[in-house]
Amino acid sequence: MKKQTKTLLINLSAVFLWLVIAILLIARLILTAKNAWLYCLIALVLIPINYALSLLVHETGHVVFAAANGFKCKTVNFGLFTLDLTSGFKLSFFTFMAEDGGESLFVPTKTVTKKQLKLLAFGGLAFSFIYLLAVGLLSLAFAKEVTTVMLCGLTVAGYLLTVNALPFDKTSDGAMLINKDGYVDGLCYAQNCQLAIENGLVPEQNSIEKCKNQPICVYFDYLLAVYNQNFAKAEQTVKLLYERVEDFSYDEYYLLLPEIIYWATIKNALTEGLERRAKHLFESNLNSSAFLRAHYAYRLLKGEREWATTIKNSYDATLSKAPAFYAECESKLISQLCKG
After folding, report:
1. If phi over 0 gives left and psi between -120 and 50 gives alpha, with beta otherwise, what is residue 213?
2. What is the Cα–Cα distance from 54 to 33, expressed in whole angstroms?
3. Alpha helices, DSSP H only, in 91-143?
4. Under a CB-based contact definition with an 8 Å cutoff, are residues 192 and 203 in contact?
5. How buried is 78 (Cβ within 10 angstroms: 0-12 exposed, 13-18 middle, 19+ buried)?
6. Dist. CA 20–CA 136, nearest whole Å
7. What does the DSSP 8-state code read for residue 25?
C-alpha cells in the first residue's frame, strides 16, 4: 500500500490548513475579546464536539442516500460508536480504535449501477457541506466573540469535508464521484456479483477490461476460475495480484491478501516479505473463510498441528453459513491444499 505515504501527506496538509485557520481565530480572540481565556477554552471544547457531530452527519448522509438507492445498511460507523444491524440492533463503542472495525457497510438489494454508487458517495459530502454551511451561517447571528468561537470549533468539520472530498485515494467520496482509476466500474461489478451470490446464483463472467482491471473485479474473476476448476488460471491471477499489492486499498488488501498467502503456502513459495505480511495479517481478528483457510494452511506448513486444528474448526463453522457459491469455491480450494 505505497499510496499510504501520499495519503498521509495529504491528510497532514489538510490538518495544517485548518489548524492555521483555528490558530488565527484563537489569536483574534486573544487580541480582541475580554475574558479571552474563557472563549479559547470553549473553542477547544467545541472542536471534539464538532468532530463527533461531523462524523454523525456525514455517515447519516451515506445512510440516507444508500437507503434511497436500494442498499441495505449492515453496519454504520459514527466515530465513537458503531451500529451493527446484521442481527438486530447492536451498539458498540470506540470501534474506531479497532484495527479492522468501525467501517460502514452497505449491501445491495437490487442490481447496482455506477450512478447509484456515486450518489452513495455524494450523500456523505452533501450532508457534511450542509452542516458546515448551516453552522457557519448560524454563528453569524451572535456577537463576534461567539461567532469566532463557533467558527474555530467548526474547523474540524472543514477538515473532514476536505479529506473526504479530495480524490487522492480511489475509495474517497470525491474520487468515487469522478470514478478515479475506474474504481466505481470495478466496485459496481463486484457489488452485482455479491448480490448474485447472496441470491444463490453464480455470478456472470465479465470482461476485466470493462471494470478497468480493478483488483476487486479481478477477485471475482479468480473465484470463477476456482469454481470452474481452472486452478492454473486461479494461481496465475493470484500471482498477478501480488505484483499490485502495494496499490491495494485497505479493503482490497484484507480481501485479497489471504488468497495470495494461501497459494504461496500450499506451493511452499512464501517469500520473506510475504511471510511478514502473513504474520501481520494473522494478528488481526478477521473471521472470513478465506482468512481462516490461509491461516490453517500456514500453521500446517509450520508444523503447528494443534493450532491448525483449532483454526480448521472455526473455518468449518464459518463455511457452514456461507452462500452456496462461496462454499463450493472453498471446497475446491481446500482440495488444492491436500494436493499441495
Report:
1. left
2. 27
3. 114-139
4. yes
5. buried
6. 18
7. H
Distant-in-sequence contacts of 275-281, Cβ < 8 A, 24+ apart: 277/245, 281/254, 281/257
Can you read off the three cell numbers belonging to residue 112? Answer: 447496482
**Residue 128 contacts by C-beta under 8 Å, 6 or more apart in sequence?**
54, 57, 58, 61, 157, 160, 161, 164
Angle between helices 183-198 and 114-139 (to 10 degrees): 110
The pLDDT tens digits along the chain (340 residues) read 445 556 666 666 777 778 888 888 888 888 887 888 888 888 888 888 888 888 889 988 998 999 999 898 877 777 666 776 665 555 555 444 333 333 578 888 899 999 999 999 999 999 999 999 999 999 998 888 888 888 888 898 998 899 889 887 788 899 999 988 888 988 898 899 989 998 999 988 766 556 767 888 889 889 999 999 999 999 999 998 888 888 888 888 889 999 999 999 999 899 999 999 999 999 887 889 999 999 999 999 999 999 999 999 999 999 998 999 999 999 999 998 876 5
- 156 grid coordinates: 474540524
Closest CA to 62 of 147, 124, 126, 104: 124
Q: Which of 103, 129, 122, 119 is nearest to 71 (CA)?
A: 119
Q: What's the Cα-to-Cα distance from 85 to each of 61, 165, 191, 336, rounded to whole Å?
A: 17, 27, 19, 36
- Residue pointed to by grid coordinates 458517495: 121
Beta bridge partners of 108: 71
Type of residue found at 297: A
